[in-house]
Amino acid sequence: IPEGLLQNMGKYELPYISFDDSLAMAKAGQPWEDPTNPKKDFLRELRIEVADALGIGQDEEALERLHIYTAVGSPLDVFHKIDFFVEYEQKDGHILRVTCDLTEDPARKKNMGDILVIDANALGDPANDEKRYLDAISGLAQNIARNFRSQESRFN
Questions:
Q1: Strands annotated E in the chain
Q2: Model-level pTM?
């Protein structure tokens, strides 16, 4: 992957990149090394809330299998409208994934296939209204947990 490509997609005209290849590029281009400890407050707080919603918040081994990734500016965002995704690897190695798109566009505020669409305005600003922000993250975490459970009823 050319240096800076994932951060500067708008500067390049690229042919369509498949979902699987886009996913691999997003994972490879993370701005942090550990997908269990993202540097962005929003993603870190969301991961903690998802863990709690799944009931694995105190299970260190299970927490190591819960990953969150940014895709902003990557081919996954450009071609597939996914801003971030959460993965949980079950004990049997099966990976559950929830893909999410943050948008301020009222025309796009409904889920698209398996993409969970989030109204960015509904999140609020943690500096101005921390309770609203934390409530929104908690609600989003519940939706992600429900999506995981619907993918695999034998969730471990």
A1: 66-70, 84-89, 95-103, 115-119
A2: 0.84
